[in-house]
TrEMBL record:
Compositionally biased spans, kind Low complexity: 162-185
InterPro entries, A to Z: WSC_carb-bd (IPR002889)
Keyword set, alphabetical order: Membrane, Signal, Transmembrane, Transmembrane helix
Signal peptide limits: 1-20
Listed SMART domains: WSC
Domain WSC positions: 53-144
Domain of life: Eukaryota
Transmembrane annotation, as ranges: 211-232
UniProt name for this protein: WSC domain-containing protein
Region annotation Disordered: where it falls in the sequence: 160-185
Amino acid sequence: MKSIAFVAAALLAVADLASSAATKVVVAEADLASSTTAAKGVEQSATAPKPSAVSTHGCYKSSGELVLNTTLTYNTDAECAQNLCWKKLNLPVGGTSNGDQCWCGEKYPPKSDLVDDKYCNIGCSGYDLFACGGFDGETVYWTIYNSGMSLIVKTSEDTNKSASESGSSSSTTTSPTATSTESSGETIIVTQSAVAATVAPVAKSTNTAGIAAGVVVGVVVLAALIGGAWLYMRRRRNQDIEEEHRRNAAVNSFTGKPPGSSGGMSILDARLDPVMAQRRMSDGSIADNQDYSRRILRVTNA
């Protein structure tokens, strides 16, 4: 009897061990299945860029300035960012979306579009354990990479923020009432007095500049008038000198005086007797209708 009881107890112990082992196997299989399902489409954590190596830059809700190049049947971070964007297109930034789309460009998307990694949840078509973008039912997300071509890459400007800041600046300068703007998480209240205080120095500076410009223009105009008057007087004087020269030339031409001779009555008339020409000129006049080139004997009553 004791032996039978001992065998029964051993059988019960073996049954308990078998049941416990079966339960553990089922739990392990369930955990493995759960972990395998959750591991697909996981966004890799952002890391610092490395030379000649692909590094994840983050999950973004916009593509920024990136351009869709193609869809890849076997899409991965290296296939898109390194093999296509860098080695074929010579671009430093790559991005994936919808699992099979490859985007390339020169700049990262705006920092304001960076979101939590959980939004990039679609597995890559070439390796579904890693995420290649995401979709939450309303918004499309992109996984952005540094292709390894350059460690220093620019970031696109936030167009929405720039437009908002421009609108806030315009309302601040034109509205006479108190306004508020937000910059870097701080709220700045601008009152009418502050605006007036800002505008007053600008108006004063503008008036000073206008006065200086007027003085400069006046000086230039006065100098132009003086210069014009001097040129007119000089031209008038030259004209008078030329007129006097022409008048003297005409007189000299009429009297037979060479232009370079000095004043005086030293002109020799070809009609005069050479002997008479050497004598002192008489105070009397000589008739122009007489020919004195030949000696003529004249008889007069004494």
